[in-house]
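Quick entry between incubations.
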Amino acid sequence: MTNWKEIDEKAKIWVREAGQRIRDSFESTLSIQFKSNPNDLVTNMDKEIEQFFIRKIQETYPSHRILGEEGYGHQIDTTDGIIWIIDPIDGTMNFVHQQRNFAISIGIYENGIGYIGLIYDVVHDELYHALRGEGAFMNEIRLPMLKQVSIEEAILGINPVWVTENPRVDYELIAPIVRKVRGTRSYGSAALECAYVAAGRLDGYLTMRLAPWDFAAGIILIEEVGGVVSDINGEKLDILSKSSFFGGEKQFHQQIVKDYINK
Ligand code: IPD
Ligand code: CA
Ligand code: CA
Ligand code: CA
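Done. Structure below.
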């Protein structure tokens, strides 16, 4: 039997230690590189923090596998066994330009089932955390279950790019949602936006393209407070595949999928 409490305690210690390393790095000059395009940034800290987690996990749990955004983990094609899905810095653009609004995100899964979700807002020292069946917390303060919300009263996290002409979605599908909700917000860190859904600061977060490391922790947090997570069509997410993402309060989620997406 997997001792999730022990793994959870260790993971929390490592996340806080990694956060301290990131805060310390504000004093030094970053080395910034481009990945797929000039807006897709990566820094020495993204790489160092991913390697930090890999060292810790491999020393302590050599049988666990690791899927990390920066590619220092394993090549993973099956959900068998225990997998740590790590985004060392989610919101790298914010990290580089703003030194805030970024997070460390870690989801820990066993045979495809999410057990631990950790999203650490490094600058605010706020650790959002969920353990399967035990609820979700922010710095050990329990997050309440989400309250029902109508579309008219909802605040939706969404990037404005999805209401411009783009190859991923017909923006005329998304624009009516943006018009109908009370307000929209765009924070530039998928993990933080998921944490905000879990904390009730956003009623939903919708995006057309995310990777497993962006949502692995967020799924667990949102589900632990009674929220629902799916792709934009309401279908179950595959934890190892890139896809669209829509997480939110149950009634709001259902209404959007039924009345606006699959109408
Ligand atoms: C990105 C952020 C951003 C989202 C992008 C992600 P990264 O992650 O979460 O908010 O819109 O799709 O790639 O690259 O900063 O870890
Ligand atoms: Ca990235
Ligand atoms: Ca990310
Ligand atoms: Ca990242």
